[in-house]
Write a structure and sequence with these properties.
By secondary structure, the protein is α/β, with parallel strands linked by helices. The protein is built from six helices and 14 strands. A hairpin with a 2-residue loop joins strand 1 and strand 2. Helix 4 packs across helix 6 and helix 5 runs antiparallel to helix 6.
Length: 244
Amino acid sequence: MATELLDGVHWIHECSEIAPNVHQHTAVYLLETESGYVLIDTGSHTHRDPLRESVEAVTGEGGVEAIVVSHPDLPHSGNARYFQELWGGPEIVSSVVTPAVVGLPERTRAAIGSKTKVLGRQLTFVDPPLADIVFSTWPYDHETGVLFSIDGFGTYHQAGECEVVVDTADSIPTVEEIERYHADTFRWLQYVDAKQFRATLTRTFEEYDISYVMPTHGGPIAAEHIDEYLDRLKLAVSLAAGES
């Protein structure tokens, strides 16, 4: 299912049940540009058909003209080669140094921390403070102010809450919910200096004018609730690091 959250930015997501009544999103995003569509990540091969159908419901059968792959984990890169062949060879943009080693097609290199134009759209490939693998990036779209936080900023959700967007105070996940997801996803958090990590996270969000945070594994977070989510995330990191 595709949901247009901002003008020309579509959230497309499928869920997996990871425990009784507990779901986790695997999302991709579509950016509309004057030169065509950019797909942010490609999702897991287990969701291949519904993701393709949702993308083509927006773009038509021709699909997209470019694909950004944040990193080579299968929930993010699992359909890259399939979509490239299906849609006539859209450009692949990724920070991965040796794409063939991880099963990716040839790609345009986007250096971590750099700005890159994709279909004429200025994207910054942010060096992420939350990543589960090297050569991962958080694409930031300068035109809409959307930060695609990939694995960061996710949460699990209950069955029946798959369409929830964090756009009200009541919809912000609790510290405990945020901690549970991040401790599971980023096992290294237990070893970090929580104070230093919080400072790094703060600097990242001070550098960009963000309208939405759009994660792969959680509901998108609207601008007016990002500060509160960040405060809760910082507390969650402290818990994961064993601070009281």
